[in-house]
Amino acid sequence: MKYTKRNRPILVKMLFLSLLIGTFAWDLLERLLSYAEMPLHIAIGPVGFDLLVISCYVYLNPGTLFGIAAAIVLFRRL
Predict the structure, then answer these.
(1) pLDDT at 52
(2) Residue 61 to residue 3: CA distance in whole angstroms
(3) Who's near 34: CB < 8 A, 6+ residues apart?
(4) Structure-derived torsion over alpha carbons of residues 61, 65, 71, 73, reported in degrees to the nearest 10
């Protein structure tokens, strides 16, 4: 799919969902590896914002980057 103003909300939703899925998938992988006694922790963070009423922070890890890349590839192939 080509990027236009009309399909911008679709791209933003795909990026946000894939960011969350990639982050949680990497966290699950780290936990499974720790149960197998192979500890692995690669993360940058927390990255986010705090507006005094609401705050949102995400730890960036390789799964986050893989998720964003997957969303861009998927968007272009639609």
Answers:
(1) 87
(2) 27
(3) 40
(4) -150
Rounded distance between C-alpha atoms, residue 27 and residue 39, angstroms: 12
Residue linked to tokens 């998927």: 74
- Answer for the pair 63, 33: CB distance below 8 angstroms, yes or no: no
- Tens-place pLDDT, residues 29-55: 999 998 888 888 888 878 888 888 899
Task: Report the interhelical angle of 8-35 vs 62-77 (nearest 10°).
Answer: 140
- Return the residue matching tokens 């993360």: 43
CB of 15 closer than 8 Å to CB of 70: no
Which residues make Cβ contacts (< 8 Å) with residue 26, sequence separation at least 6? 61, 62, 63, 64, 66
Q: With beta carbons less than 8 A apart as the criterion, state whether 30 and 41 touch.
A: yes
Closest CA to 75 of 22, 3, 4: 3
